[in-house]
Give the backbone structure.
Amino acid sequence: MTTPDRPSSQEQPEPRKRSAASTSSEGTPSSETPKTEPAPQTAQARPRRTPEAAAPRPADAVAPAKPAEPAKAVKPAKAVKPAKPVYKDRAYRSPGGLAGGVLLLGLFGWLGADAVITGEGRTPWLALAALLLAVPLVVAFSVRPAVFANDDRLRVRNPFRVIELPWASVASLRSGYSNEVIDEAGTKYQLWAVPVSLRARKKAARQQARESGRAAKGDSSGRTSLEPRTVRAETDQIMADLRELCEARAKAPGSQGQPTVRWAWEVVGPAAAGAVLLSILIALG
């Protein structure tokens, strides 16, 4: 009777190994974990980005562009008021005084030049001293006097003084035997450049009487003129114009101030020097 062949000792360990592998696969813990060889990578795998990762981070996010500021409305330029035109001063002079002064200067120049050229001894020196005294005085009383008026003030240039009176400081302008301006303090200043002519006043009075009679009778058409024409002497008309200007500009801001008086040393100095020199020459005889 034959017995079945038993497996040899070399073939027996297989079932054990299999059993060990089965036990390990069934969940029995084993001391070593089986190592699995990594699969060959044909290409480097790129990490997949989740929606959260795909969204840009706040730091990386591009700042939104600022909205363009609306253009500021340009305010229309204010209309510049045209500057008030500045007119020259109105100048008032005496035509008769100017003519007389020019004639006297010519006469003194002729006589003085003759004395200096043809004179002997002290005569030329006396003539020069006399001219130094007389010429400034003739200029002061004939050519120099003038009255200047503008919207702000009245300037009176008399023979030896210059008076400036803002219109606010003028109390009145008076015409009598001479034309005068009176300031608020009561000081009187004579207007040498606007002399009074009694003859011109009489002539103006006669013309005014004729105008009044003609207005009362009426013209050729039978109509009566309600306002006869006013006739004044030239100097009286100048004073009337100055009064009107003073009343209109007395309260203006540029017409405020106090009167100022300045001596005309350019006239007083030469005249005084001529007087002193002439006195010395006469005294030395």
Residues 161-217+232-259 form one domain. The first helix runs from residue 13 to 26. The two ends are 206 Å apart (CA to CA). Helices lie at 13-26, 51-54, 95-118, 123-143, 198-217, 234-249, 265-284.
